[in-house]
Design brief:
The chain is α/β, with parallel strands linked by helices. Helix content is about 40%, strand content about 20%. It contains nine helices and seven strands; from the N terminus they run H-H-E-E-H-E-H-E-H-E-H-H-E-H-H-E. Strands 3-2-1-4-5-7-6 form a seven-stranded mixed beta sheet, sandwiched between helices. Helix 2 runs parallel beside helix 9. The longest helix has 24 residues. The chain is globular, with a radius of gyration of 17 Å. The N terminus is likely disordered.
């Protein structure tokens, strides 16, 4: 199955490729819901979303007591603020998770969940970003991390989207532990997406996700997701287009 799905959250809004990618990814609702369902059991009541972009994933967290949507781009902050203006529990903040000033701004909140979905790969100093996320978490809180996987797939799509890297399981485990967090789950997702990403990014050298493939994937998503879940019940799948990490901060911290 040739699919190329990567719901990036933080390309520059004034970059035509980034803007168009975000718009296209908003239409892949079944895939976005899959990601949310994988992390939903670990979502608390005071949630920090790092890199909210145009709000493609923000809408899934509206039921919590407090949702802090963070982005470093004023255009994103303005758009998400307008979109969720009627939600009194949503606070949209301008800031960079790599900056100590942003950590100081957010430190008064008792954040029990940090959500970072396809954002870490856009940050050059991801070690600093992870350390700051860990700092902001209350003891016993969770980091819910979703990143593109497989350095062998890095190509023109990644370059156009501003990815500094793609991750492997051992590599991401070490980075998360280095930030002082303990991974509770570390596994690959979207095995079916590998051929499509390889074809489009490494062979055809495209810079945008094809809309026809996205529509096809969204239509077949329930079948593909069910098949992958069944496979993961009997096999620790060693590859995927993405990597999911659920990490916890020591309750005694």
């Amino acid at each position: 199955m040739l699919t190329a799905v990567d719901p990036c959250c933080t390309p520059e809004l004034d970059d035509p490729i980034g803007r168009e990618t975000l718009r296209r990814m908003a239409s892949v609702d079944r895939y976005n819901r899959w990601i949310y369902r994988e992390i939903a059991p670990f979502v608390g009541q005071t949630v920090l979303e790092v890199g909210c972009g145009i709000g493609n994933m923000t809408r899934f967290f509206l039921g919590v007591q407090r949702l802090i949507a963070l982005d470093r781009l004023p255009g994103s902050v303005d758009l998400v603020s307008e979109t969720f203006a009627a939600m009194s529990n949503v606070q949209v903040c301008l800031g960079d998770i790599s900056s100590p000033d942003t950590v100081a701004q957010l430190s008064p909140y008792a954040i029990d969940t940090v959500v970072c979905l396809n954002v870490l790969e856009h940050i050059q100093r991801d070690d600093v970003a992870l350390y700051h996320m860990a700092q902001l978490l209350a003891p016993g809180g969770h980091l819910l991390l979703f990143v593109p996987a497989g350095s062998y797939m890095y190509g023109t799509l990644d370059q156009a989207l501003g990815h500094f890297r793609r991750y492997g399981r051992a590599d991401l485990t070490a980075r998360v532990q280095g930030a002082g967090l303990q991974p509770q789950r570390m596994g690959y997702l979207n095995l079916a997406g590998i051929p499509g990403w390889w074809l489009n990014s490494r062979v055809l050298r495209r810079r945008l996700l094809p809309t026809a493939q996205l529509r096809l994937f969204n239509g077949l998503a329930p079948l593909l997701i069910a098949a992958e879940r069944a496979l993961r019940r009997v096999w620790d799948v060693p590859a995927g287009q993405s990597l999911l990490c659920i990490a916890r901060k020591n309750p005694a911290a």
